[in-house]
Amino acid sequence: MAPTSEGVAKATVCVTIDNEREIAAVNAWFNRWGPRIRCGDNQGCGCCVDIWDVEAPPEALRDLPAAMVSVTTG
Q: How far apart, in Å, are the Cα atoms of 10 and each of 18, 19, 41?
C-alpha cells in the first residue's frame, strides 16, 4: 500500500452495484473500519458503480477483496 505521512494508505474503492458480494463486503468494511477511514464523496454514477477515494490503514484496505481496491501512488 502507499503509506501517507499519517501512516495510512490512499486508495480508490470501486463497487459494482449489481454485485451482491461486493455490496456486502463494502458495507461490512465501512461498518468495521469507518471511524479509521477518511472517505471522499462517491464519484461513481450510483446506478452501476460506487467509487470512493479513501485514506485508511493498510490493514483495512487488505480486508477488502483485491479486485475492489486500487492503491493510489504519489
A: 25, 24, 14
Give the pLDDT confidence score for residue 1 in this predicted structure: 43
The one-character DSSP state at 9 is E
**Does any domain span residue 50?**
yes
Percent of the chain clearing pLDDT 90 (strictly above): 84
* Grid cell in block for residue 30: 465501512
Single-letter residue type at 74: G
Residue 1 covered by a domain = no
Q: How far is CA 24 from CA 1, 64, 71, in A?
A: 23, 11, 21
